[in-house]
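Protocol check, entry for the methods section draft. Step 1: assemble the input record (protein sequence plus ligand SMILES). Step 2: submit for complex structure prediction. Step 3: store the structure tokens unaltered in the notebook. Ligand used here: flavin mononucleotide. Step 1 record:
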Amino acid sequence: MASDRSQSKLFQPLAIADGKITLKHRVVHAPLTRNRGTPYSESTPEKPNRIWVPNDLMVEYYSQRATEGGLIISEAIPPSLEGNGMPGVPGLFIPEHADGWKKVVDAVHAKGGYIYAQIWHSGRANIPQLTGTPILCPSSTPWDDPNDFYAYPPPHSTQQVKLVDYPPIEMTIPKIKSTIQDYCNAARLAQKAGFDGVEIHGANGYLPEQFLSSNINRRTDEYGGTPEKRCKFVLELMDELSQVVGQENLSIRLSPFGLFNQARGTQRLETWSHLCKEIKANHPKLSYISFIEPRFEQIYTAEEKQKFLDSWDLPDISLEPFRKILGDTPFFSGGGWNDKNAWGVLERGDYDALVIGRYFLSNPDLVERLRRGLPLSKYDRSTFYGPLEKSSVGYTDYPTYEKTVPN
Ligand SMILES: Cc1cc2nc3c(=O)[nH]c(=O)nc-3n(C[C@H](O)[C@H](O)[C@H](O)COP(=O)(O)O)c2cc1C
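Step 3, stored output:
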């Protein structure tokens, strides 16, 4: 028997963006990279294509998942060639990107939904064959697992390469400044495309988190060496971006206890607490802040993750310390939420909204299914990431509940 959940706090309104946007429910579509973009130019071994643009299939995907008063966070969008960590990912650094994203945004708006652009710089989680540039990192810290392959073979090759063989270069101060300007340029294009706001991808071991992580950031200048200094890049980035879009249209996603992409640093609580205090002081009107659950992990098992938490002397850690620091800033949580465990969480006051990834991917009508207590369709991992022979498979072909149930 389906149980009606419409009285849950998940379906009560939530004001974000300093009251400029009132969401009609609190089931947020997580940022999900799907590599379904269209190549911008012909690709040859001599001149490989390195740019992808949004297309009609992407418009369809986002439109399928847009709901009246619902919030979608876009897939991670690189602000530059250097920042693009995967093939098939449309960026925001040429006019055609803004034109393409505008179609996605318009489709979401047409259904009464809202959409933020997640801006993403991969930093060292990348290979120079893909970007055509040196690989950037706060320090020239090579990949520490000699057996880790980059997930895709280089363009026009069938042979995967090892990340350790392509160590990154340390970003100079001018490079730090110009990279921040790349984010600002992407934010301007996001505004042009009509996005309702911008979310910095500050999680999962990509460039901002590389600055925050003591095992990757080994700098001894003002950008490294202490928790406070390791926060400087992110704080500077937020200051600059809020100049462009306004702090009420800005947000950031953080994973203070994440291990993805070799974020194995220590001083987790000290570093991210300092970061949150500064964010609260400098951006009190931030649109919202989004966290990944301490125990959620993409690669490690629950037991392995617990060992890391124990090693940091944080065996029972929750997001509560950050919630306390951030006070009334709308506070989102993501990582492992489903139709069984999502109930009562917002009522407890721990969070203001839940960010859902994999079940949103496999249930275009996720919000309705949760509201009506209908069962969820399982996701197929093999089609998470493109490019695939047929892009729509595992992307726009997941049916709504009505279409899965024979009449
Ligand atoms: C296919 C796939 C792509 C993802 N891409 C992104 C991304 O672009 N940006 C991001 O912040 N997180 C990304 N994530 C992480 C998700 O946003 C989310 O945090 C994770 O899936 C856990 O939530 P879930 O249990 O609801 O799926 C991705 C996850 C998956 C499965």
